[in-house]
């Protein structure tokens, strides 16, 4: 039978055909609209539904609690106000030095080249970030370059979200070449969820570009559940690993999605099969609209204790929280007071 939802297409076509209408998403997943649709439409007005068809194809039809669906379907609970849940939980506007630049940590420098993402994750800590005022244009390279030269301690540039892999290979190549021209920059890190939600993004051109860079390239993908890692995704990630790219994964601990050691063990094992190492397990950043994904400190500690007991150390991601103004991510296990 033809899968009318998703057939392998090039990634640009997939990006141009994202699902943005909650009604269409529920229809494809054969879910009755009565309970979910009105909340989804209301919440989508604040932070739009956006999901690739390839990702929807990994969801279970007829299951309103599918862990992949819960990450992307707008929910009326997002509209509730909760004390401590704010629009800029990591204080990033204060760390915003120049257009597109966040300098939070000593040797690392974060560049946001686009505000666009292939998927809108409902728990995203940047869901309220004012990207449009912050995107660097070509003429901004000079001040960025000068900033880097004035900070010789920076040796790593992180391309982050919005999602840098929504950009064309040509545009990426221009920015990578600029960074390569500075001797002090040794490492290029790319944070992206695109390889998980549109695996075809790892095309020959991108692989060639990353393989032939002077910089040591690290790709940090973002998967929260083993069901996100189907065979196509794992094969594409392996292509990059064979091209000498170090591929790591970061996850967010989310109520209803991956809040059990069993689910996280399966995720780590699946990542390892694909040659990817678990890197971080973030506790939820307290962003406005994401309260319903939050877990208590006790539950979090219990899950992590069970994870440690069930995996070899190299498959256990570091449990961390990012605290505004801190010089590094804060390890949490054993001292959880959040
Ligand atoms: S892909 Fe990353 S930056 Fe974009 S919405 Fe999801 S978590 Fe946020």
Automatic annotation (TrEMBL):
Superkingdom classification of source: Bacteria
Q: Which PROSITE patterns match?
A: RADICAL_SAM
Point out residues bearing the modification N6-(pyridoxal phosphate)lysine: 329
The protein's required cofactors: [4Fe-4S] cluster; pyridoxal 5'-phosphate
Q: Which UniProt keywords apply?
A: 4Fe-4S, Iron, Iron-sulfur, Isomerase, Metal-binding, Pyridoxal phosphate, S-adenosyl-L-methionine
State where [4Fe-4S] cluster binds.
117, 121, 124
Q: According to its UniProt record, which reaction does this protein catalyse?
A: L-lysine = D-beta-lysine
Where is the Radical SAM core domain positioned along the sequence? 103-326
> What are the recorded GO MF terms, alphabetically?
4 iron, 4 sulfur cluster binding; isomerase activity; metal ion binding
Q: Please name the InterPro entries in this protein's record.
A: Aldolase_TIM, EpmB, Lys_aminomutase/Glu_NH3_mut, rSAM, rSAM_sf
Q: Which family does it belong to?
A: Belongs to the radical SAM superfamily. KamA family.
Protein name, per record: L-lysine 2,3-aminomutase
| Name of the coding gene | epmB
